[in-house]
Structure formats: C-alpha cells, structure tokens
C-alpha cells in the first residue's frame, strides 16, 4: 500500500521567522512501510552533534490536502506542524516549529530530536516514526558519508580490480604509470596555455595623452568643454580571454580536477584500507601464542548442557512437551497400553526400524534374533518415530498395532505406533556414554580452572596455528606490496591537484567562463597545447571508464550531497559492501551495464533494481537485487540469487535474503533484540519463503549478541546460526545456518568488511549446499573456492580418514577442511580460527560443534 505522503530531511535557510530564502532536500525520502493501520519509518538522532544542524524532519502531501498535519509525542501532546513553501519547486513542507532561535535563525523542534516514537497524523493516514539514538560525532558522520562516496567512486572507476586472471582479486587500482604520465602532460600543457592563452582584441574607450588619441565622438565634446586638458578619451583595444577555446579549456580542467581528486581520494582510501588490513592481520598474528585463554562462561554453559543430556527427568519433560503439542491436533487415544521399547538401526527400505519391546521393566527384551526372527517398528506417524532415538530405553503409553508373519524362513513381528499419550526415558547406553563425556569434560574444566583458564596448545593445535600464521603472513606481504603501489599513486597525483586548482583559478581571474561546447576552431589543430588538453581529456576518461557523460554527472551530483538520511544511506552503504566483497574479495565480474544500474539505485527509490555478477572459474552467477518483491508480496532490502553448476553438471539455484536495519541499541531492544528482529523477518514476514531461503539482518549495534554461544572473536557481535540461540528456534536439525545477524558498523573500520565476507563466504560455500550427507562424501558438490581470498586455485590434500577432504589455497595458503559430524552425519567445514562460521569448542579449538545436533566433530 503506497503512502500519499513522503518524509524527508530538509535544510531551510530563513531570512526571518516568516520568510524562507531556500530549501535543500535530502537525496531520497525515508522508507515508509505499511503495517495493519499505519505506516512505519525509522530515523536516528545524534546527541554528540547537538548544536550542529543536520537537517529537519519534514512531511509533504503527494495529493493536495486542506487538513493540517500534527505530531503526537510520547507524552500524548498534540503538536501542530508549520507549513513551509519552497519558492523554487513550489512544494509545501510541514515541519515542527516549537521555538524560533534568533541566534541560528531557524525554527527548532523537540519531538523528532528525542529518542522514542512519535505518531504523525497526515490527513487520513498515520505515520509512526521510530527514533533511535546514536553516539556518533559530527566528524564520524562526515567520515561515514565521505567513505560511502569514496567507495562508490572506487567501484565505478577501479575496473582493474575485477578479476581478469587466475586467482587475482585485488591490485593497485585504476591508476597505471600511463595515467600518471598523462596527468603530468595535461598539467604541463595547461600551464603552457596560461603563459600564452588565446585572446581576442576588443575595442574600448580609454584616456590617453593628446598626441596618442584616436578620436571618438566623446573626444570632440571634451575638446569643446575642457579646452587644454592633457588626457582625452580615445579609441583603444584590450585582450579578452573569454573566448570559446578558453571556455572549453576551463570546463575540461574543472572536470579533470574532479576526476583526479577522486583518483587521489581512492588511493587515499585504499591506503587506509591496506593499512587497516595490515594492522588487523598483524594483531591476529600477534595473538597466536602457545597458551590459549579459555572462555570459562562458555565452558560452564557446555557443562550444564552436558549435565542435562543424561538427566532423564529433563529429557523426558522435553519429549512429553513435544508430544503434547503434537497431540493438540486431535489424534485418537483409544486402546492405549503401557510398554517399554528401544529402537535400533533403519531397515534397508528405510521405512522401519529394528525394535526391542517388553511389557514390564523386569521382563527380557523381545527383539530381533538373527537366526529365527525380526522385530520391527513400522513408520506410522513420523513425529512418534522422530521422538525415539537409538541408544535410549523408553516407557510409553500409547496404541501399538501388531502384525506378524513369515518371510525367507524367518518369523517377523511388526509394531506400528498409532498414537502415544505419554513418553519417558528410563535408561539406555547413550545415557551412560553422555555421563562419561560429562565427567571427562568436567575434569578438563577443573584442570583449566587450576591453571587460570589458560590452555597449552597440543601438537596438532600448534600445527594448525602454524598453517593459519603462514596464510596471514602471505596476506600481509600482499597488502604491503599493494600499499606501496597505491602510495606511489597518491604521491604522484596529490601534488598535481593544487596545480590544477591554481590553473583553474588563474583562468577564472582572467574572466573566462566555463563551457562544455567544443569549438571547432583551428586553434585545436595548430596549437599543440590546446590540442593535447582536448585529446588527453578524452584519453583519461577512457582510462577511468567515464566516457559516459550521464554517469559522470550522476557521480558529481552524489558527490555534492551533504544532507543525508542515515538509515537510507546505511542501506546503500551495505549494498556497496556486498558488491565490494563479491568483486574485490571473491572475484565476481559485474556485467557491462552494472554502473548505470548502481547509480540508479543510489539516486532513485524505484523497486527491484538488480545487478548481475559472474565467476566463470566457479561456474556461478550471482544476481543481487535491491528491494525486490518476493512471491508473498514482501520487499526485503537485498536478495542474492546464486545460480551455479555442480560438479556433476546439474544446474542449481539458492536464495539469500538480507535486510539492513540502522537501529540503535535502544530500538533494537524494543524490537526484541536480534532474536525478535530475525524472527519477525524469517517467520512472521516469511522472508524465508517457508524455509527455502537463508535470511540475515545487517545492523550496526556492537555487542548485540547478549548471550554469546561461540568463542570466536566475532561471537559478541554477530550470529551466523551456528548453534541454537533463540527460544523460538525449535528446528535446528533442519534450519541451521539459515538465519542470523551480523554487526556492520561503518565507524568500526577494522572489522566491518570481514563480517560481510564471512557471511557471504558462508552462504557461497555452505549455504548453497545440501549438508545432510546421508553417506555422501564430505566434499561439497559445487566447485571449491577459498573463503579467505576468493581464489579457485586450490590443491586437494586427502586425509587418511575415509570421509574427509582437505584443500590448501595456492594463492594465500589458507587451509580448509571438509568433514562430517560423527553423530548425525552433517557436513562440517573448517576455515581456521578466524573464518570458520561454525562454533568452536571452548576447550578444544580444533573441534567444532555440529550446527545440527551440536555435538563434537
């Protein structure tokens, strides 16, 4: 349902309290989503920028209305809005005008500058504005906006970063030595023009001595009236530099200045990024020690879970709860009786399990005897059979339908569980095994407690650490080379900026006005300086892929944006980071028309814009859509459809849905925390499309994971669906790694891109696979790649065990292990301590927990 209003931030320049001089609008309006009886939009305030005007929230009717809109704040107070007319666009905006500040010359408001919720009544429509609070300083906000613009320019200009060759992901960027030489020559020729610019002599009148006078009409009047005056008006000439050739040269120099300025900004941005990567990797390298600090809180949680795993009262209560929930569907309970049973392995057909059964606990088990009989439990209602696990002994009250007969010389007995009222665990080998495991883990914990929770790494753990250190050192060497190359670019171009600016200033001081019209004059044929500026400008646009005038104009418009809608900017920023990961980290090449599509997304608010990326080496195509409509009518922020070919030649498709939430911590908690937001999107709004899609939220709240489940460094801020965390998470065995949340804070420069890379890497490596092995090999069915650097150049190294695959990346030496869970046979992939998205065991970093059954590797 489309709203009949729009909400924007505007900046108003006032002459006095009743007179508007000008109005500047934010680039795009706030997102307004209809829910039940109202529209909902979100915005933020910044307490640390108090006193700095960052725009004013304003509303505008898209259809004419005579009803004055008003706020209702948290205290229930009604605040009528003030109408402001933009004399240029004739748009009527409604703003809160609580008090006039004569010092800053603007109307000020309170409601939209206070964290909480306000309702805006706009004729017959209601808009609820959720207002969060962020402790960003003005400097941080400016950095955020500048980084966004720089990222956009880099993606547009830096075509050489797209993967061209084997294993190549990043290089020194768009600026080659040819480009630097071209810029130097352009500057030299522009300075030559300034020394001898083209000029036209224009006739003027000026005072001259009597003997030098060339008379005009005024001269004879002066002779008649002044008589013996020494100076008289005379005809004269002076050079004019505001000629078509110079006007075009000024236009070109201004364009060159903007392009070179962005190349300098890109190289500066890359230098910062490489420096950050070097600092981050250096910190990771220094963190490798032979002593590992154990997270005792996670150990305590694990011990509590292990204790519950053999507690028959706890286990029986959980089973009975599941049974009662199911029985609410109205299954019959006739002919119930009590018996004891335990189940064995599946039969060859897979529709039955071997069974042991008895009437009384003291009786002997009636079970399969190889020579004479087989006893089966037939699949009746699937839930009943799913509740019964091999290794446990159960006491049940239910209805068992019995049949018997002979086959191949053996008597068979089949029981079908028609209904069940009660279930209780009374024993079994698995209880004993779990009890022994608990005692072993508790013994380890006691040992670590005596040693201040510090663990000496084992030989195997040190060997894995050395492999990871070798990979990090490889990346450090790579980034050091890149930083050096980019430094050369910056040092070569940055000094030229000032000289180009000086040339532009000089031409303007000579009265030249810029014009984009190219004059077809002989000057550009005969004068080598004018000729080179024209041809050099065309050449540098080719080198920077800016031959499209519309594209360059759009980039310039975005560059001028100062008034920003932060939640919407966060969406666009997240989009750029997703593209950066696909292109720069994972080697996907965008299609030819992607630049215009991206600019269209940034500049407009049209739904369903999409970008296509290909990786021929991996036989994959990624379609990244912005605000598409799902079949159920919902519109998430991003949908990533991955089309790929398996090793056996089959075509396959998998979908990843992401939503950017620029929430403050207070707004996130009001929404139920990460759990509440993920549940709303995955289940309530059905972004998962009945469990088929992976769904993640992207947010900037640090330490949003209030109950940490993974010991890795990312465990405090992000959740990759690695273990059960939410109280509504009842289907772990089916939907592990299917939903989660990552913290991507644009102010935290060191880590945010890694969160995107780990999330996208997890989906491209693990999320597109069917990870329930059922006897299949551990290795994935799609083509393998390195999660750390994106390379497809891998060497397969087979472990001695029958079901395992090890790969080493030939580019960055990252080591990946494909294995399986010994308990439930789920595929597990280890990517080292940093990139692994499964949860590690707190006391054994070499071991990871199965995301399906949460057992050890």
Would you write up a description of this structure?
The protein is α+β, with helices and mostly antiparallel strands and 857 residues long. Helices cover 35% and strands 26% of the residues. The protein is elongated and about 145 Å long. Among the domains are: 5-133, no CATH class; 200-240, no CATH class; 306-450, no CATH class; 566-768, no CATH class. The protein is built from 19 helices and 36 strands. A 7-stranded mixed beta sheet has the order 24-25-26-27-28-29-30, sandwiched between helices. A 6-stranded mixed beta sheet has the order 3-4-13-12-6-7. Strands 2-1-5-9-8 form a 5-stranded antiparallel beta sheet, with no helix packed on it. The model is unreliable at 49-53 and 160-173 (pLDDT under 50). The longest helix is centred in the middle third of the chain and has 51 residues, at 459-509. It holds the Pfam family PDDEXK_7. InterPro entries: PDDEXK_7 (IPR007505). This is Nuclease domain-containing protein.
